[in-house]
Every structure is written in C-alpha cells, then in structure tokens.
C-alpha cells in the first residue's frame, strides 16, 4: 500500500471514530465509581485530535469539525518526531473502540506514567488505555472538577501505574443536567449500598430507585 493510500485509510478511520465520539461521548459527563471513590470525566471535541496520534496544521476544533462532516483530507494530516507514523498506525487499530471505556467492564489506573509525563488516572480494557488529567488553563491552574481525556495508548499499562482498580459503576448525564440519570455499566453483585453518600446525592432518583430494587 502506498503512503497516499495509507493516509487515506487512516483518515477514514478517524472520520468513523469522530462520528461515534460525537454521538456517544461529547456533551456528556461520565461518573466512574471504584473502591469507594469516584471521578467525573468529560470527552471534549478539542481533545479528539490528540487521541488519534496524527499531526495537523488545522486547529483541534477545525480538525474535529472536518472529521465529523466527512471532509477531513489526507493532506491535512502528517507525521512527525512527536507523532510518528508507527504510533499512529497502532492507535488506529483501537481508535474505533473508544466506546468501550464508557459502557464496558474496565479498570482504572492511578498515576500512570507513559514516557515521562504522569497522568492522574487511566481507563483501560486491557487493549487500550485513555489517559486522564485535570483540566487546566494556560497558566496551569486547575479549572473545574472533571478529568479530561489527554492521550490514547494501545498497550498494557498496568505496569506503568501505581494502582489498578476494577470500575464498579459507570453513570452518565448530559452536561447541562445536574444529576446522573443513566447507568452505562454496573458490575455484577453491586447494589446501592455499595455507593457512597457523595455519589448517591448526585444520582437521579429514578436511578437510585432502580438500584434499590436490585438490592
């Protein structure tokens, strides 16, 4: 396969993944519960390009807009020392599987260290890992309580983390809603008694009733 054909194939993979990312992840908040703790995560349009592993002269926002409109072109992407082709090709094999971290059995890794940068958390299904960090402004100040997706790794990341925990629940809600109203995933045997009061207070009553009936 020629380089031109290869780039075209990569672009088509990105377009498909962007469409699913927008439909299932953008505009929603996700609450991951594990070991009596929880974190909230959002998946933003401006972070998608970095997850792909490609370089582009487009802004992250324009890159995503072109992708979801099916207008992204092979000439808009390139590879570099920072974003090498081999790493991109590896990410392409799992990019379309991002949905698995919002509705499937996964693990949460704490203090993961890909290369030299330490991410506070990582979400992994053993085949892919999405690295998370706090949201910061241009001065490095933390803004908001959510974590954001910063990087996609296609590797076993357990040996790069200080701790690994099974995710017991994943809840979701639209960003403009106050409380979580959808159960995306629940580990077998879990009941509302497994949830801390801090988590219960941000769950919609319908969800709490549903969990109470299970218990």
What keyword list fits this structure?
215 residues, alpha+beta, globular
Describe this structure in words.
Helix 1 (3-24) packs across helix 3 (60-68). The longest helix is centred in the N-terminal third of the chain and has 22 residues, at 3-24. The chain has helices at 3-24, 48-52, 60-68, 85-95, 100-103, 197-200, 205-214; strands at residues 28-34, 37-42, 107-112, 119-124, 129-136, 142-153, 163-166, 169-174, 182-186. The mean pLDDT is 91. The relative contact order is 0.16. Strands 7-3-4-5-6-2-1-8-9 form a 9-stranded mixed β-sheet. It contains 7 helices and 9 strands. The protein is globular and about 55 Å long. The protein is α+β, with helices and mostly antiparallel strands and 215 residues long.
């Amino acid at each position: 396969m020629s380089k031109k054909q290869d780039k075209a194939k990569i672009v088509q993979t990105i377009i498909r993944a962007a469409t699913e990312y927008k439909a299932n992840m953008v505009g929603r908040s996700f609450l991951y519960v594990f070991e009596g703790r929880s974190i909230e995560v959002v998946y933003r349009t401006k972070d998608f390009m970095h997850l792909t592993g490609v370089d582009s002269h487009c802004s992250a926002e324009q890159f995503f807009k072109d992708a979801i409109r099916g207008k992204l072109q092979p000439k808009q992407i390139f590879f570099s020392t920072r974003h090498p082709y081999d790493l991109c090709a590896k990410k392409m094999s799992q990019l379309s599987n991002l949905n698995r971290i919002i509705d499937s059995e996964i693990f949460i890794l704490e203090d993961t260290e890909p290369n030299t940068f330490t991410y506070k958390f990582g979400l992994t299904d053993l085949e892919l890992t999405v690295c998370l960090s706090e949201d910061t402004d241009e001065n490095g100040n933390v803004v908001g309580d959510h974590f954001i997706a910063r990087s996609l790794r296609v590797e076993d990341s357990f040996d790069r983390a200080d701790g690994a925990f099974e995710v017991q629940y994943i809840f979701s809600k639209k960003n403009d809603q106050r409380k979580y109203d959808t159960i995306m995933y629940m580990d077998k045997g879990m009941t509302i008694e497994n949830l801390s009061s801090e988590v219960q207070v941000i769950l919609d009553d319908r969800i709490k009733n549903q969990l109470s009936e299970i218990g």
